Amino acid sequence: MKINLLFSIDDQFVEQMKTTLFSIYQNTDASHQFTVYVLQKKLLEQNEAIKSFCTKWKMNYVPLVIGEDSLFEYAPVSSRYPETIYYRLMVHKFLPYSVDKILYLDADILCINDFSDLYQLDLKEYLYAAASHKKLTNMTKMINQVRLKTYEAEGYYNSGVLLINAKKAREEVQAEDIFRFIKENQYNLLLPDQDILNGLYGNKILPIPDEIYNYDVRKNATYDAISMGEWDLDWVSRNSVFLHFCGREKPWEDKYRGRYAALYKHFWYKAKNE
């Protein structure tokens, strides 16, 4: 199966992306053909290193260099709303037309099981598939619905794992709509790109289980409570696919002491030294 992966990074997150890719290589069927697309304002300084790394693990690397693209000429841009927030939402404008589907991943994600079932989801008329973290209380969900006027959406979706229906996005996702939404809601946006995703397209997102495809490693106690103790460490090891190291504390930092620190460091060092 041909699998398209998408990242959006700068040179400071190259090693993290390599760790994610190596964990995918180690935990996914070797028969798959991977193409790794990386959104970037200008060609990354480590471009050749990324290419060599991907070649080593039999992945095809394609840099998507935005440059001074006129698409963002009238985009609202500030320190809070850098141009880069638009790249992931408008990626269909830069992908080859032959790409109908692509999986976006944040670079602080670890793959610990095969994600083929996710990639093969039939998105039908949905623009995206994403997970809504169960850490949110009903009150928080209601506040987000009011804040973003997403009353019909099932939840507030995390954009760190996003299966994108590029074919459908070419028809429905327009830069002008995104720019207009920001201007009309600029004082209500807390996480700009994620808020835009939920505010404009929340009712066009296919829900996927976060405990499988976007496990927030900070929320072990919450997952334990929701599952009545079923989703313990053994269950996660067998069933969860993507561990997401959300938040300020990151597993590549020496001070990190989370439950999955050793697991992340294992892949971090392997990706550097294999």
Automatic annotation (TrEMBL):
One Pfam family of this chain: Glyco_transf_8
InterPro entries, sorted: Glyco_trans_8, Glycosyltrans_8_dom-fam, Nucleotide-diphossugar_trans
Protein name: Putative glycosyltransferase
GO MF annotation list: glycosyltransferase activity; metal ion binding
Keywords, comma-separated and alphabetical: Glycosyltransferase, Metal-binding, Transferase
Native species: Tetragenococcus halophilus subsp. halophilus
CDD domains in alphabetical order: GT8_A4GalT_like
